Amino acid sequence: MTWAVVFFGAAVLVAFTPGANNLLGLHHGMTQGVWKGLAGLLGRLAAFTVLIAAVAAGLGQLLAASELALTVIKWAGVAYLVWLGGRLLWSTFRTGRTAHVQAPRSTESVPAPRIARKEFVVAITNPKAILIFTAFVPQFIDAAHGSFSARIAILGTVYLLAEFVAGATYIGAGALVKSFRLSRRATRNVDRGTGVVLLGMAGALAASSS
After folding, report:
1. 128, burial (CB in 10 Å: exposed 0-12, middle 13-18, buried 19+)
2. For the residues of 123-185, what is the DSSP string, one character each?
3. 24: phi then psi, degrees, rounded to nearest 5
4. Are residues 27 and 174 in contact, defined by beta-carbon separation less than 8 angstroms?
5. Helices and strands (H, E) in the chain, number of each type
6. DSSP 33
7. Of 26, 69, 104, 209, which has the fewest CB atoms closer than 10 Å, so is most exposed?
8. Percent of the chain whose pLDDT exceeds 70
């Protein structure tokens, strides 16, 4: 099982890389609290589980090899990130009000299923996530030891664990900031900053060649 330990170390580095899902996890931890942040993380892990199952079934390689499929997924991801970022920015300007991080009701402002759905869609529409499971993960598979599907299932589980560790860390960091009881202006700036970064990520995804 040494190969699984080596893979876990590599997977942790990949999982901790700043991206849209980790940014959302940080933001949800800051504005919604730990439990709702973890609900979002479960949505992300559900999306990755779907991708792992697709690779194990042999569909991932076909999808990765299809330029049309990756292009459709890429632009769906771009559109969703623009919608998320734009909506978050607009919410800070359309009225003079914003959610108080320190208010007891702030953790109830967004239903947990909606947060989970948001992270699921962001993860499933990211072509780079598909490439992780079709190019990165198979590098650790030795065809001489066990079936491809079984090894993919094991490595997929290890990657989900790494993603959980990374996601929980970002959520915890956000919750730590939340505990400082930010002012209304600071909270509004957090929302605006998150919206701007999401729009920037949408632009980077749109400009990417994948």
Report:
1. middle
2. HHT-HHHHHIIIIIGGGG--TTSS-HHHHHHHHHHHHHHHHHHHHHHHHHHHHHHHTT---HH
3. -65, -40
4. yes
5. 9, 0
6. -
7. 209
8. 83
Q: How far is Cα of residue 28 from the mean position of the Cα atoms in its chain?
A: 12
Burial class from Cβ neighbours inside 10 Å (0-12, 13-18, 19+) for residue 24 reads buried
What percentage of the chain reaches a pLDDT higher than 90?
A: 38
Q: 159-184, pLDDT tens digit by residue?
A: 999 999 999 999 999 999 888 877 77
- Cβ(130)–Cβ(48) below 8 Å: no
52 with 150: CB under 8 angstroms? no
Task: Tell me the per-residue pLDDT of 14-32, one tens digit each, with 9 for 90 and over.
Answer: 899 989 999 999 999 998 9
CA atoms within 13 Å, Cβ hemisphere of 121:
15
- In DSSP notation, 108-120 reads GSS-HHHHHHHHH
The span from the CA of 73 to the CA of 70, in Å, is 5
Q: Where do the domains of the chain lie?
A: 22-207
pLDDT tens digits, residue range 45-80?
999 999 888 887 777 666 666 777 778 888 898 999
Token representation of residue 94: 């359309």
What radius of gyration do the chain's Cα atoms show? 18
